[in-house]
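Late entry, written up from scratch paper. The run itself happened at the end of the previous shift, but nothing got recorded in the book at the time, so transcribing now.
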Amino acid sequence: MSSARAELTWRSPGLLALYVLVFCGIAVSFLAGAYPLGPSAVMGFLFAQDLPATDATVASLRAVRIIGALSVGAALAISGLLLQSLTRNELAEPGLLGISSGAGLAVVLYTALFPGELTLLSSTGAAIVGAVVSGTMAFALAGGFSSVGASKTRLILSGAVLALLFAALTTTVLSLDTNTLGDTRVWLAGSLADRPPNVVVPLGVIILIVALLAWAYSGRFTILSMGDETATGLGIDPLQTRVLSLLFALCFAGLAVAIAGPIGFVGLIAPHVARSIVGGRLTMCLPVAVLVGAALLLFSDAIVRILAPPAEAPVGVATLLIGAPFFLLILRRGA
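Output as recorded:
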């Protein structure tokens, strides 16, 4: 722990920059959009002052959107970080492994099978179950749990095939059930728009609690990334720790999908940026990845609102445009 703190102090300019970036992202998210909301209105909202009804409503909607961006960005960042550490594969992230698509398909299936019964609990449960099933399938197709470290390409290809399969199944369900299509069309593209506060806020709190739990185990996960022999020598059960790490990763992916639908590449970019700032020790890398993921999603969501108001694209489109070149860059350098 002491070395991690020393590393944090030595790299503190990078962390300070991230704090400022997240703060700026929150400020821009409050101000950006078709309806002009000035800084005085934002301050009035934050300090519970009397505001014109329209200003108060818009500020409230944007506050929910900000909580969604912070929560989803953090969840995807941790999911990607744990998957990359677990598989020792720098390309691993919930979108590329088909986990987000599987979670999305599960929610669509539940919506089609039980119309009108989609609640916070059922949608979250369906998304997490979908993430666990699709993640298990990706690892099984890659050759099993113990060999994923030696089959990086196979894991990514397995995930890509599963993502295509889940997308095809989702399209099939939606083409047969137009009511479900209407309910999930925007959400499936990965969007923070019009997400109800009774979904975003509780799930944001759950993500925070689970993130603290994951951080508490991050020391074990770091030791596991050094190899099974090292972990065993230090008294850590490799299989048990590996399963726990995977469950955390899949749970975060499911929670993110439950809020905003499948959003790609945040789980790829955030861990890489975090490691470049604080190194590979998960005890430090995890909170920094959270800041990076949150900032990335805040600015991505602001961009889609600024480009052509009042119209806006899903935030998943922005992360795709940012993440695709990043993916190719990692691929080019031989990850």
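Confidence is low (pLDDT under 50) at residues 1-6.
(Scratch paper discarded after transcription.)
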